[in-house]
Amino acid sequence: MLINIEPPARNIPKFALFNLGFRPFFLGAAAFAILAMTVWLGIYLLDWNLGLAGLPATTWHAHEMIYGYSLAVIAGFLLTAVKNWTGIQTLHGYQLAWLFTLWATTRILTLTQTPIEIIAVLDCLFLLILIVALTSPIIKTKNRKQLGIIAKLILILLSNVLFYLGNAGLIENGIQQGLMSGLYLIIGLILMLGRRVIPFFIEKGVSYPVKIKNWQWLDISSLVLFFIFWITASFTTFDTITALLAVILFVLHCIRLWGWYTAGIWEKPLLWILYLAYIFLILGFLLTALSLFSDLTASIAIHAFAMGGIGMMTMGMMARVSLGHTGRNIAEPPKLLIFSLILLLAGSIIRVILPLLFPGHYTIWIGISQILWVSSFTLFLFIYAPILVMRRVDGRLG
């Protein structure tokens, strides 16, 4: 749960971009979402020829959406959340500016012919510094509950190292394993954080009293089974085991969503976007199982996880956290926001569902979904850039 702990302050500068972690990283993530997808659209549909650090275009696209966009959102969220969980100020001011600059510089360099070795060092250094910055306040306050998050971040760092070692030819299949491991670890982190905050958001967000259902047996079993799924799906060829685990996880998370359901979520854009994103995540498990034993391309399952799940979940969380931590009413989001959410939802449906129904037009569906993604984040950036850059509306520091 994210809560405001800052007392009112006086003489707060209007420029507040580096006051707290969510501000620069949410802004940067939204801008990079536009840039990276525009580049991918140009490469995919218009045959653009760019340096991309010497990486194949599909490899660059996958890596940057996982280790570029997704990690920026996670960094912004956790730098903000850890401050509230521990009561200790996380990176801010020039330290936060340097960390953000490191992330942004790395992303820009991947668009050039900069040697991949330089990019690898900068990329892994960013994540290492982030881990240290988050771990310090957690250890100081003996907040052991949050160590699982740190463990996942360390595994994500190791997965990125694996990717770069694979690219250097030092580890066979390192590129594929690093990408898939990073993707699934980010999904696991989202599922963990979603389990904590989405039920709370629903209970507090609907216009009537409701008690969300959760079951400890489901929490434990889904966590353990996902850990095994991550290993088999990322590092082995045990397709039968992976498919079985994916089906079980699909069923377990369907039960979880049933326990969270209440009709009032459809009245609140910041609730239904999170709920629908979760649906895409669990759909990804089912499609993964199907892709292992049918003609269904694995790309559709991956994009159910990535565009529908991660994309919609991160936009929903950025929208909510940015309002709450700038003193605005989360129950009354900007009116234009709903159009941004609808565009992203439409793009996810077109990218994942329409290829299943009309596979003959696969390239068209990808192109339309790319345009909708760019349009959605452009509108989101237009709405939220002033919110993220300028000081809180309630006179507090944050």
What does this structure look like?
- 73% of the residues lie in helices and 0% in strands.
- The relative contact order is 0.12.
- The chain is built from 13 helices and no strands.
- The chain has helices at residues 22-46, 57-86, 93-109, 116-140, 147-167, 174-205, 216-235, 239-260, 269-292, 298-324, 337-352, 354-357, 362-389.
- The protein has one domain (22-389): Cytochrome C Oxidase, Chain A.
- It is mainly alpha-helical and 398 residues long.
How would you sum up this structure in a few lines?
The protein has 398 residues and is an all-alpha fold. It has helices at residues 22-46, 57-86, 93-109, 116-140, 147-167, 174-205, 216-235, 239-260, 269-292, 298-324, 337-352, 354-357, 362-389.
What brief labels describe this structure?
398 residues, mainly alpha, Cytochrome C Oxidase, Chain A, 13 helices, 73% helix, globular, disordered N terminus
Mind describing the biggest β-sheet? none
Number of helices: 13
The H-and-E topology, N to C, reads as: HHHHHHHHHHHHH
Q: Which percent band covers the strand fraction? A: under 5%
- Oligomer description: single chain
Low-confidence stretches: 1-6
Overall mean pLDDT stands at 95
